Amino acid sequence: MNTDSRAMPFHTGHLLGKASWLETRQAIFLLVLASMLYQMGMCFINTVAFSVNTALVGLVELMIYLGCIFYLRHAIPRYMGAFLLLTAVNLLLLTLIRGYLDPKPFRDILIVVLFFWLGMTYGSVRLVDRLVAVSLCIAIALGAFEWLAIDSYVKLFHTFSYFQNQSGIGVSGGAIFEGQALTINGFRPEGIGRTILPWVFGSHRISSIFLEPISLGNFATLVLAWSLVHYTRGGPRRYLWFMLGAATLIAYADSRFGLVISLLLLAIRFMTPRQLYSLAALAPWLMATGLVIYASVFFDGNYSDSFAGRLMQSGLALGKLDFAGLLGGQSPLRNYGDMGYAYVVTRFGLIYLLLAWLIFWRVPMPSLASRRFRVMTCLYMTMILSISGTSLFALKSAGLLWFMLGTAAVSREDAGHAIAEETVDGA
């Protein structure tokens, strides 16, 4: 069966002719690709044409969201409407309790809903493969350009000034050195140094199409997860290239997160028995509890920008939340920076997060590959919230993540041999 004909769970295909359906698939491809590349385009305009402010970037994001809504208008499942109603009521209630409107949580959950829904409606393994292949090629090529010809690169993508215009970062002496043209985390400071291939890249952390090395590492992790669950489909060659590309990007970005989680993803792919799928559903809650215990026992008053230091800070922030903070009623809302668990709890409230996570795990996954991918992305979300504040909701990687998950929810790619593999996994 053609994989492109399988993922029409809401029967949008009967509303369109065959030619129109294929044209729509092309439009969806470009829409998701745009969600990954729009920041790069804005940075290019900021560097060579005119200053790009936050409002203009927000307008471009809004156009992407409206594009999603346009293609989803024919397929509105009732349970999606119920989830949207629950979310809207929760966020509006929290707004009333706080006494002011914070638009960021509305935008964060919009990305989750729209791209998951888009994947369920139009996604297919073949379409995601195309997205991964094209974006990988662009990322590797632009990353090589940034590495080998940085003086020419910054004449086209002056990321430091771009982010200054967005948020004022670096205006008050935040640069590591005078004349810095790359974003602040584009270099490892002295005393920390690179972890991956320092003799090749020096202190430079390559950002490529995502403008920040953190996002490049996140993207590489998603590519690796997708490749690991599909590498047996139609021969391993394509997915081995995907894995090699992901490893290259992790090295480019000096992503300590990517390095650590890659080993965990490999373990899940080859070693996880069936019983651990249920354990994965508890992973964020176990991690949050572990972080609080870790911070309360081992914190000695000193902070560091190491991986362990990030975990420590995340646990400390979460442990200091009062009852109002846990329920999402903190006012004013604090900026939790790299402390993701404190960020999501204070923005959405613990009760809503429990319900939303339960709904996520109740979404049927029709194949073994789909169930494995959900476990891997669960691990990704669990870990990234431990060391980063809002990067889980950055459109340039979050759009692809939720489109992949939506596609996984309708993909029956390995249905023919899933039972046999699952028997082996559960042994």
Characterise the protein shown here:
The chain has 427 residues and is mainly α. The protein has one domain (3-288, 330-425). The protein has 20 helices and no strands. The chain has helices at residues 18-48, 54-72, 78-98, 103-122, 125-148, 150-156, 159-167, 198-201, 213-230, 237-253, 256-271, 275-281, 283-298, 307-319, 323-326, 340-348, 350-362, 368-387, 395-408, 418-425. Helix 2 runs parallel beside helix 4 (103-122). The longest helix has 31 residues, at 18-48.
Secondary-structure topology with pairs:
Layout lengths: L17 H31 L5 H19 L5 H21 L4 H20 L2 H24 L1 H7 L2 H9 L30 H4 L11 H18 L6 H17 L2 H16 L3 H7 L1 H16 L8 H13 L3 H4 L13 H9 L1 H13 L5 H20 L7 H14 L9 H8 L2
Helix percentage range: 55-70%
Number of helical regions: 20
Overall strand count: 0
| SSE succession | HHHHHHHHHHHHHHHHHHHH
- Overall 3D form: globular
What descriptors fit this protein?
427 residues; mainly alpha; 20 helices; disordered N terminus; disordered C terminus
In short:
With 427 residues, the protein is mainly alpha-helical. 68% of the residues lie in helices and 0% in strands.
